[in-house]
Design brief:
Strand 5 and strand 6 form a beta hairpin. Helices cover 45% and strands 18% of the residues. With 773 residues, the protein is α+β, with helices and mostly antiparallel strands. The N and C termini lie far apart (126 Å). It has 21 helices and 24 strands.
């Protein structure tokens, strides 16, 4: 009696197995079940099995292992009358005919067929095993097959060795190769390496003479050009008797492995050589695979003579073709050639080649996805580059526009503020000099000139300040100030403006000597109060009142401006602090203004770390409340004693200024106050004259045409005769105060020149001790 072995997903032996070997096989099942943590079920789960006789209990046996990683079914049928294999015992030995199955569908069918016979307490485990069935993990399957091989090759069954060993060893080798191909697919995205390695190893495993991959579509021009170059150089002529490749062909052999150099090469051969001529005229989706040709002469002698001629020249005697389907499209063919003689392809070889083709399809699809991903990545990178460039261009354009705006505002600062300063300064000087000469009407005209100039100057200053805040260039010049003195200054500045509108000012001051002094930027706080008070006066009818309250609350100082004006409707309050926004938008507006005063006020308050709120009732009035944090210096210096403007100290002052209009404002203001002024145009020769005249103060423009301001100040400080003289730097921006003080100036006077500010600064310098060397 012979024995047949089918190495497939259903493993069957058609010869009796001894009981001892069968027991060892069941123990192998128990070991693998414990290893993969699987559910193990045997015939004891069937109802009534235990009540039968021992012989009947062993008539039909099974062991089932179920897990996501490995599932198998072992079935055994009792045989009688079979002689023992060893001859060591007399009589009849119990033997079994067994079958092994690894297919999830067949195992599930077995479980479903016996479900009605399962004992109740086994039914949950039975159903759990049914749900766990999946295709086996290749590594676990390979390990189990090796252990099964060891069991089959035991000396006890020497009659099986000759039959089992070659088939099982090839089964193990095929499973190992499949596992290796899958591992390489997981670990690498280099498709050419994966395909060439697979072709080499599969050819060796199947022991065929040639194995090729024929790509039906998508052969690149590079591959065709490379093929033609090889033929033109003669590098392939020794191994192939065929002509030049047609680069316009639809498909081509792209990978090849040969058993020896005596086998002709068909690498880069295309459809022009009738390579797949047998498939012409058929819809690709209808092709039947695998295509099995055991003898090409018999198969193609009458049907496709062109293909037969090509195959004979290529020494092909038999071939096996498996399709490579990628994304539901036939990408190519995996073809095995036997070149020595006709060959009967076994089922296991067909299945193995088909499995390899399926795994290669996964690798190809994965490479296509990766290529698409790389293309999308490149496209996105290009878009990011283009978008970044566009943003950079927009940023440069914005910076250029901002620079143009800054240059325009600088021009406005120079071209408008300087003439306005002359108008304001000279009108004030005329008022001082001609108080007993001009009549009341003429004095009123002078006052109107002065007030209009100050109003226009304030608007220009507001626009410049808003621009600086938005550009992030606004720097607070924090120092200790007297709050009571500052608010009185602001009220004094706006007295004439309030009188013009017939509005009464009221000051409600609640400050202790300790809370009167705080750290802030006096110019910006003065600007905040000026904007709020002038705004209150503007919107208060004649006969009304504007009250300024100053008090402290915890760690904050509160500046509150209350008016009895027209008030603001509640729905318009959120628009108050928007730039260039007027609540009265008619063409003939009753109230003038640029609409930036309150917006700038809010920004300046927030720069100090404070906040501003408003409460208003239409027809009743409004209350604006500014809350500023109280910042005090650690080493509080005593209050600076200020002198009255009525009797300023007299002394000699030297002015170094090349601009005539600025010099006239400063000279007239200080001369009217009783000071002696000497005006010099050039700074380069001023040091020698200052040594002779020895003034108590020097006012020097830092932008002289003949000498730099820092050079002049350094020369004065290094000279033993002039190093004690007070120096006032005349600069365009107040923010430069600290820089010029670091160079050696005592203080900084900025455009536009305000006579009151100038006189106050000179008196403060006269009250201080001489500067230390």
């Amino acid at each position: 009696m012979g024995e047949t072995i089918n190495i497939s997903d259903a493993f069957t032996l058609s010869r009796a197995w001894s009981a001892s070997k069968f027991d060892r096989l069941r123990k192998l099942f128990q070991q693998i079940a414990a290893q993969v943590e699987a559910i193990e079920i045997t015939e004891v789960a069937l109802a009534g099995q235990r009540s039968q006789s021992p012989l009947l209990a062993q008539s039909q046996l099974f062991s089932l292992v179920a897990s996501p990683g490995f599932s198998a079914l072992l079935q055994a049928e009792l045989l009688t009358g079979i002689q023992p294999l060893t001859g060591a015992q007399s009589g009849t030995e119990v033997s079994y005919q067994i079958s092994l199955n690894f297919e999830p569908e067949k195992i599930a069918a077995f479980l479903d067929g016996l479900l009605s016979q399962v004992e109740r307490n086994w039914q949950p485990e039975w159903m759990e095993a049914r749900s766990r069935l999946q295709p086996n993990d290749m590594q676990i399957q390979t390990d189990f097959t090796r252990q099964l091989l060891d069991l089959l090759l035991e000396p006890l069954d020497s009659t099986l060795v000759a039959v089992c060993e070659p088939a099982l060893q090839q089964q193990v080798e095929q499973e190992r190769l499949l596992n290796q191909v899958m591992t390489q697919i997981r670990q690498s995205l280099e498709l050419p390496i994966i395909l060439q390695t697979a072709v080499d190893q599969v050819r060796a495993c199947l022991r065929v003479d040639r194995l090729v991959i024929y790509q039906i579509e998508g052969v690149t021009q590079t591959e065709s050009s490379f093929s033609q170059a090889l033929w033109q150089e003669g590098t392939m002529q020794s191994s192939s008797p065929f002509g030049v490749i047609d680069s316009q062909a639809a498909g081509s052999v792209v990978y090849e492995a040969r058993a020896s150099d005596t086998i002709p090469s068909v690498l880069y051969f295309s459809d022009a050589h009738c390579f797949v001529d047998e498939l012409r005229g058929h819809v690709r989706e209808s092709w039947q695979f695998p295509l099995i040709v055991e003898d090409v002469t018999v198969r193609y002698a009458t049907s496709v003579p062109c293909l037969l001629e090509f195959l004979q020249r290529a020494q092909v005697q038999a071939k096996l073709v498996a399709p490579i389907w990628v994304n539901n499209r036939l990408w190519g063919l995996l073809i095995a050639h036997n070149c020595t003689q006709p060959y009967c392809w076994e089922d296991r070889e067909q299945r193995f080649l088909q499995h390899i083709a399926e795994h290669l399809a996964i690798a190809i699809h994965q490479a296509q996805l990766y290529s698409e991903l790389q293309q999308q990545k490149h496209t996105l990178e290009q878009r990011v580059i283009e978008r970044t460039q566009a943003l950079e261009d927009a940023m440069l354009a914005a910076q250029a526009a901002n620079q143009a705006k800054s240059e325009f505002l600088a021009a406005v600062s120079h071209e408008l503020r300087t003439p306005l300063a002359c108008i304001i300064g000279m009108s004030r000087t005329l008022q001082r000099w001609s108080a007993h000469v001009l009549d009341n009407r003429q004095q009123h005209f002078l006052q109107m000139i002065h007030d209009s100039g100050e109003r226009l100057l304030n608007q220009i200053e507001d626009i410049l300040a808003v621009s600086q805040v938005e550009a992030g260039r606004m720097v607070l010049n924090l120092r200790e100030v007297s709050l009571s003195h500052l608010v009185r200054q602001v009220l004094k500045m706006l007295e004439s403006y309030a009188a013009l509108h017939q509005v009464e000012f009221e000051l409600d001051l609640h400050l202790s000597p300790q809370s009167d002094r705080l750290i802030a930027d006096p110019q910006r706080v003065r600007q905040i109060l000026h904007n709020l008070l002038s705004n209150a006066v503007k919107f208060t009818l004649a006969g009304g009142r504007v009250t300024l309250r100053v008090f402290t609350e915890k760690d904050f100082v509160m500046l509150q401006v209350q008016d009895t004006g027209i008030g603001i409707p509640e729905h318009l309050i959120p628009q108050l602090f928007q730039k260039f926004h007027q609540l009265d938008r008619g063409y003939s507006r009753q109230y003038q203004g640029t609409g930036i005063g309150l917006a700038l006020t809010k920004q300046l308050v927030e720069l100090h770390g404070g906040s501003v709120t408003v409460e208003s009732t239409a027809g009743v009035g409004s209350v604006f409340t500014v809350q500023l944090p109280i910042l005090r210096s650690i080493d509080a210096s005593p209050p600076i004693e200020t002198r009255s403007l009525i009797d300023p100290p007299k002394g000699k002052i030297i002015l170094i200024e090349h601009r005539e209009e600025i010099a006239e404002v400063i000279c007239d203001s200080l001369t009217a106050a009783g000071y002696q002024l000497v005006w010099m145009l050039e700074g380069a020769t001023a040091v020698r004259q200052i040594e002779v005249m020895r003034p108590f103060a020097i006012i020097a423009d830092v932008d002289l045409p003949d000498i730099k301001g820092e050079t002049l100040i350094h020369a004065l400080r290094r000279n033993p005769v002039t190093k004690q003289i007070k120096i006032v730097a005349l600069a365009p921006e107040i923010e430069e105060r600290e820089a010029w003080q670091a160079i050696g100036a005592n203080d900084l006077l900025h455009d536009p020149i305000m006579p009151e500010q100038l006189l106050q600064m000179i008196m403060l310098l006269a009250a201080k001790e001489p500067i230390s060397p």
